[in-house]
Structure formats: structure tokens, C-alpha cells
Design goal:
The complex is a heterodimer of chains A (277) and B (281).
Chain A lengths: L1 H8 L3 H17 L10 H11 L6 E7 L5 H18 L2 E6 L4 H13 L13 E6 L3 H8 L3 H4 L26 E6 L5 H12 L3 E5 L8 H5 L6 E3 H11 L5 H30 L4
Parallel strand pairs in A: 1-2, 1-4, 2-3, 4-5, 5-6
Helix pairs in contact in A: 1-11, 2-11, 4-5, 4-10, 6-8, 10-11
Chain B lengths: L1 H4 L16 H17 L7 H47 L8 H9 L5 H29 L12 H30 L5 H5 L5 H23 L11 H42 L5
Classes of the chains: A alpha/beta (277), B mainly alpha (281).
Keywords (chain A): Membrane, Transmembrane, Transmembrane helix
Keywords (chain B): Membrane, Transmembrane, Transmembrane helix
Amino acid sequence: MKAFFTIINNLDRRIIFLAMVVAVIWPLVTPLALPVQITPNTQSSYDVIEKLNPGDRIILSFDYDPASSPELQPMAKAVMTHCYRKDVKMIAVALWPQGPMMAKKAFESLAGEAEFSGKKYGVDFVNLGVQPSYVAVVKGMGDSIPGVFPTDFFGSKTTDFAIMKGIKNYRDVAAIFSLTTGSAGIGTYVTIANAQYKTTVTGGCTAISSLEYYPYLQSKQLSGLVEGLKGASEYERLVKKPGLATAGMDVQAVVHMMLIFFILLANLSQAIAGKQK
Amino acid sequence: MPLFALGFNFRPVFEAGGGVSTEGIGIWIAAILTLGIYSFLYKDNFFYKFSEYLFVGVSAGYTLVLTFHKYLKPSLIEPLQEYSRDFYHIITGASVPIVNPWMLSWQTHLVGNQFGSQFSFIFWFAVKVFLFYIFPAILGLMMISRVFPNAAWLSRFPLATIVGYGSGIMIVTTLHASVLEQIKASFVSFAPLFHMKGVDWSIIAQSANDFLLVLGLCCAIIYFYFSAEHKGVILGPASNFGIWVLMITFGASFGYTVMARISLLIGRFQFLLGDWMQLVK
């Protein structure tokens, strides 16, 4: 037995990497369809959109770049699906330079689906692009959204779009949904749009930054939070449209089990076969 | 080639009609570079270094072009072009439509062509262009002075402007959102516990949760109180409990970090197996 644990102690780390690759590929190729439980934070975020009336407009803020897209892009698509089905109009803005491209990609991806073939750019969705200095942008939208974004991402005049008729500032939108990674995003909207203008703020973020927003959930300044890939898979379940996040959660489960197994095995081998030199 | 032989249906580079698919080429390049980056897991090699340097170079180039086209051009170059073109047309009296609304109002005002009005137009034009465009551009250029050690001190001015402006906007709102509201949220009421009829477990659970929140908050703050030694009946145990609260928080944070990193790995494999190999949908 000690010989086995000595081998484990001296195991080439590349074997663990290989095991990790197998643990990722296997559930992707043969989905396990493991159940996803809805957490209260995701449910609250979903409820914010669910309670809106057809024709209401929300700000959908794409505050991330391609590096965070595995977590946030499925989330964006699930939220957009929900809005389309509820006929809630989406005004996409971005606090990150690459955000508008992510919005464009999500919009184009859904536009190709038969269910949303009737949805039109400028009527149901508009991509206003990005402006520099995110604090000034969030603050400025409190005064005038078309003032901060005079043209959309493609250079057309913002006020010419049907979706922007009657939109002046935060008071004219029903809620803000920010998809956040890093400093610019949910925190900025809570600090300015919610604290100063009392606008309902909800959103989703990468798992790594979700703890940062828990105090805002506790104080109800943030109405729900979709957390990482797990949150995205929950939202996909809520809108009854399993996608990449749901598929990814099978992998998460297998990989986490494997990690726990390796941690236990490593500790056991350390205890039995002694410390590796 | 062996992979093709195994029956993998890789994304074609050529379209059905015979033309080249730019999307297909992009997917192949991304897939090869992804494998290049992951090749580091075996050992450091030329393929990894090439992929890494290419990523850094392309990211820097992309950011530069994006900054120019999305920030510098619409915020500085195009307005300056518009202002100077309109200024030239107004001064020369050319019959060309004035684009800028502010300049258009001046053109209307200058119909009488009085010398005094022309002077004030030129003065206010110079003030506006300098304050809104030239001065910020100079401040921006001063940031680059950090490259030259002798002139590096110049960068302090734009930095001071940014810090001052940022503080001005954020201090009040942050104080309200992140301090006052948080303090308010920590004042929880246990009144429902004393007014419940019979045994209501949801109220009991909520009250226990609230109690734990307040206790955890107080003990974590006590841990960071360094004016008295963490000993005795109150400070000692409270500080120890504060450490437990912090450790649980760090543990949760680490758990989320692991989940986030695995999500990135899943994203890459979904791309490799889906977009590139077309093995999964």
C-alpha cells in the first residue's frame, strides 16, 4: 500500500492534466443531464425581468470581454431570450471596449433562431456601443442616455431608433441588467444608478467576482445576481432553453468531483508515504 | 491527418461553392493557437511561446486600434475637424451648410456682420475648442511623458486631474451605497421572533441567519481592531470567531475562483469540440 502512495506522491503532474482533459471532454461528448437547482439569487434576477410588462425597456450592459465569455455569453443569451419572449426591449450599452462586440454576437446568435426571426434591430434591441470613462458614462446616463450615446455602435443616430423614443434617462427604463467582469459594471450601477437615481439594478457576473456583490444583495441594493456558469445554467433552465451553460455544468460536476478526489488522495498519500523531498 | 482518418468532422476552410470561408480560417487559427497555449502543460516549447507572444501583440494592437477608432477619433479628431471646417466656412462666408449646432447659432448671430460680433465669435470659438479639446489632448499627451525620465513629472498633472475628477464623482455615492446602506442593512430586526404565533420555522431560520450575520460582522471588525490585545472574555473569543468568518469567506471565494477557472477551460473545450471539430452542438 505504501508503495502505491509513494507512486502517487511522485506522480507526474501531466497525468493529472490528462485526467482533467478526459473529465472535461467526456461529459461534453456524452451529456449526463445532471439536475440544476435554482438558487434564490438567480430566481430574484429572473423575477425582475419576469415582472416587467411587454414594451418596457431595460438597459442591458455588456461589461465584459471575450476572456469572460464562457461564463457570461450563455448568460447574456438566456437573459435576451427571456426579454424577447416577454417583449421587453433591450438597450445594450457597454462599459468595456469589447462589450459591444459581445452584444453584437449575442444578438446575431439569437437572430438566427426561428423563434426570434421577427425581432428587429432598433425596435426590440439596440446596441449603443461603448464610451470612455465608465464612471462618467454611468453618471451621465442619469442625465441623458442619448447624450452619452449620441450614435449607436454602427454610427446611426440614437434618437432615430423606435426603441429610444421617449427615453431620456434612468427614469425611463424599467431596470438595469449588467453582465459584469472586473471593476466596471454591477458595482458602478449600484453605486450610482441605484443609490442616486433609485433605478432597479440586477445582473450577472463571473463566479470569481460574485462574492464582491453579496453585500449589495444583503442590503437589497442589488435585486438578484446570476453567478458564473452555474447561474447561467439556472437561467437557461428558468427560460426552458438549455444551452452551453447547462452542458458546462455537467463538466463542472465531474471536474469538481475529480478535484476533491485528487485532494483527498494527495493528502492521504502524504500522510501514509510521507512528505515528498 | 490521423485525426481525419478517425472520422472527425473538422470545420471546413472552403465553402460548398468553392470559395474560402473566412470564419472557417478564423476557427482553425484559433484552434491551433489554443492548442499552442495548452502545449505548455506538457512543457515549455516554441509553439507555446509563439502563441503567447502573438496573443500579447494582437491584444496590444487591437486595443490601440480600438482606442483610436472608438475613443480618440469620435471624441477629439472628428469634433476638431467639424469645428475647424465650420469655422472656416463661417469666416469666409461660404454657402456651405454648417453642421455643428453651436456654430450654426453663431452663424445666425453673425448675419449682421458687425465687427464686435465677429470678435466675440472668434474669442468664444477659441475658448471652447481649447477647453473642450486642445487642453484635454495636451493632458493626454502629458501622460506619455512617463516614457522620458526627465519629463516624467509632467504625467502627474493628468493623473491628478483623473484622481480629482474620480474622487469628486465617487466619494459621495460610494459613501452612500457602500457604507451608509451597508450599515443600515446590518440593523436587523428580531421583532418577528417575538410576535410569531406558534412555532414558525421560517421566521426562526431567518432570525438565526440575521443573528449570525450581525455576530459575524461584529467579530470580523473586532479582528481588525488593533488598539487592544485580542485577549480576555470578549475580545479573545470574538477575534477568534472573526478569523473563522474570514476563513469561510476566503474559502467561498477560492471555491468560486476554481469554478470560474474551470468555466474558462470548459469554454475552450466547447470551442474545440464544437466549432472546430464539430463533435458536439
